[in-house]
Amino acid sequence: MTLLVATANWAADVWAERFAAALPGRRILVLGDDYEPADIRYVAAWKQPAGALRGLAGLKAVFGLGAGVDYLMEDPDLPAGVPVVRVIDPDLTHRMSEYVVLHCLAHLRQFRRYEAQQRDRVWDDDRDQPAARDVRVGLLGLGELGTDAACKLAMMGFKVAGWTRSPRSVQGIETFAGEAGLTPFLARTDILVVLLPLTPATEGIVDARMLAGLARDGRLGGPILINAGRGRLQVEADILAALEAGTLKAATLDVFQTEPLPAGSPLWSHPAVTVTPHNAAMSEPSAVTAHVARQIARIEAGEMPEGLVDRASGY
Asked: Are 315 and 143 in contact, with CB atoms under 8 Å apart?
């Protein structure tokens, strides 16, 4: 069995080393090694270079190394009919929930305000602090990541709801679905957390219309956006316009339409924007390679892998 690690400037040698430990006795290659494309049985990819998947006639499965698989689904060389498998790993899920809870709490407890006051040596006696139970968080997307984050936010006391394209139920979480459910979902949301997969149907979904639909009667003084999903889900010009107009109070953005975020982007210096460098839920190589090894064992035993992507829907 031969596995190819196909990444663009993302520690391919580190991934290969971890795969060698997780799959002893198997041949592990990286792009640039000498190999016959027809000999490759599995690919583990992250934003693979153009042509990396070309000619892999013996491929049994392609594994994404991150939470999303949009970069795979958009590759014209992705072999037809080959299973695509996304990562379902507790380590990655917990990391995302940590990020979401952290930034919901930071907005709840006005962290940026107090950070600025410390910098300016201002002691403000205004101690008005809404409680978590006073704030409505809405999760746009209730997959593995969104569901875990929703449940942990609910444990903190937030009023939590989730929206999905098709109906689903999560114990203890109010749910909305489809186009008909989007308007009431937004209208009850003070903090919008975006964790949708990127597909043709979701690209640009976080736009002026969506931001205008968020609640105006919340305890935080205006709605807040947190996007830790994919950068192309958001229209950054609309986010900036909403911040300037007061339609949006603040934004925490971990992902961007262009990455790395260009130095000239006004998002860097906007006083109401928190920028993080797409690190909300980094894939930990040891955890992910162990997960992939388990799925390869399932495939070779004639079983279905966990995390199989529906190629029609893109996730």
From this structure: yes
Instruction: Indicate the helix (H) or strand (E) that contains 273.
Output: strand 273-275
The pTM for the full model equals 0.95
Could you count the other beta carbons within 10 Å of the beta carbon of residue 303? 10
Task: Report pLDDT for 165.
Answer: 94
The verdict on whether 278 is a catalytic residue reads yes
Rounded-to-integer distance, Cα 225 and Cα 253, Å: 8
Catalytic-role residue among 107, 230, 232, 291: 230
The CATH number, out of the four listed (3.40.50.720, 2.40.10.220, 3.30.200.20, 3.10.350.10), of the domain defined by the range 90-275: 3.40.50.720
What is the residue extent of each domain of the chain? Answer: 2-89+283-300, 90-275
Q: Are 147 and 170 in contact (CB under 8 A)?
A: yes
* Marked catalytic residue, from 18, 103, 278, 291: 278
- For 41, 198, 204, 228, 244, the CA distances from 220, given in Å and listed in that order, are 52, 29, 26, 20, 17
Residues in CB range of 291: below 8 A, 6 or more apart: 87, 88, 89
The 10s digit of each residue's pLDDT in 217-242 is 999 999 999 999 999 999 999 999 99
Q: b/e map of 123-152 (b: 16 or more CB within 10 Å)?
A: eeeeeeeeebeebbbbbbbbbbbbbbbbeb
Among 3.40.50.720, 3.30.420.40, 3.40.50.2000, 3.30.830.10, name the CATH number for the domain at 2-89+283-300. 3.40.50.720
- Separation of first and last alpha carbons in the chain: 27
Q: Give Cβ neighbours of residue 161 (< 8 Å, ≥ 6 apart).
A: 136, 137, 138, 139, 173, 174, 175, 176, 185, 188, 189
